[in-house]
Amino acid sequence: MRSSSGRNSSGNNGGSRGGNSGGRGGSGGGRGNFRGAGNNRDDKQGSGRPKKPRPEERRYDVGPGATKDGPKAGRGGAARGGAKGGPKQPQKPGRTAPARPREYEAQIEERNRDRYAGKKEVKLPKTFPGAEQEGERLQKVLARAGFGSRRACEELIEQARVEINGEIVLEQGRRVDPEKDEIKVDGLTVATQRFQFFSLNKPAGVVSTMEDPEGRQCLGDYVTNRETRLFHVGRLDTETEGVILLTNHGELAHRLTHPKYGVKKTYLAHIVGPIPRDLGKQLKDGIQLEDGYARADHFRVVQQTGKNYLVEVTLHEGRKHIVRRMLAEAGFPVDKLVRVAFGPITLGDQKSGWLRRLSNTEVGMLMQEVDL
């Protein structure tokens, strides 16, 4: 067993771990001393072991070709003053060509103009057959009208479902004028982008005008944010609810309301019975009104709850209050009236006061109804 005096003597005599060689023990106590304050570690590092610099004392002017102003060539971005810091090298300004005077520029421009003045115009090759034609590509017009992507419209053409002026088109890239050419898909006319078609479920109490001088709620209040001026197709009396169409297509609106085309309108009426079995026959045979006979095209009882009846009446006439007057003349005044269909456009589950844009198929069906 070693004595404590042996340990101290080995530390004092400059053994491998003590003394001036930089070991753990100092002359005062060998291993007994701690590394904290008072042991003078930085002052006792000898020349036998190189001193390790602290991070803040590190130098970058090392290696061949390095100077105190910057690092040697080939060091990393941090040493050149990159994202991690380091000294930055001053950038040498590059050489720039002297600016030419304006007179010299004018002479060059005039010389080039004279050089190409007598030469003929070069005609560039066409990128595809028919490029010199006017108009737009057919698939682009169909895609803009809402028939899908251009690739989907090309498939419609390949399937021989597209017509132009009554002729079935099979070739891709056909150019058309949407304002002049009549384009049909599956027999239905394609409306151009400038025409707009809407269906409004008119609530009760709304006047069927676009403006009302008396300040009552009207159809124009539902389309105030539209840039294009719209107008209504036909009318509904103030207390009648249901489908009313709005558009800026004048010819379509005119034909939909013209007696020549006989577009059918369907109504649901709430009446109080009991009603006779031959009420439908009376309406179909015609009811004498003040302005002549009025005939229904179709009549049926939809629902009966006690004496309350919900009946459906379809007719193609458009005289004022015609459904109310026909049922009142037959002895059954109408308590509530709703138009549920205007030609092929149905009310469905559209909520009261909601405005919706008609689909391309619905617009095509409307145009087919009036031979457009």
Automatic annotation (TrEMBL):
Region feature Disordered, mapped onto this chain: 1-104
Pfam families the UniProt entry points to: PseudoU_synth_2, S4
Residue ranges, compositional bias (Gly residues): 12-35, 73-85
UniProt superkingdom: Bacteria
One term of GO molecular function: isomerase activity
InterPro entries: PsdUridine_synth_cat_dom_sf, PsdUridine_synth_RsuA/RluA, PsdUridine_synth_RsuA/RluB/E/F, PsdUridine_synth_RsuA/RluB_CS, RsuA_PseudoU_synthase, S4_RNA-bd, S4_RNA-bd_sf
EC number: 5.4.99.-
Biased composition, class Low complexity, residue ranges: 1-11, 86-95
Family matches, as CDD domains: PseudoU_synth_RsuA_like, S4
Keyword entries, A-Z: Isomerase, RNA-binding
Start and end residues of each RNA-binding S4 domain: 136-194
Family classification: Belongs to the pseudouridine synthase RsuA family.
Protein name (database record): Pseudouridine synthase
Source organism of this protein record: Streptomyces violaceochromogenes
Lineage, opening ranks: Bacteria, Bacillati, Actinomycetota, Actinomycetes, Kitasatosporales
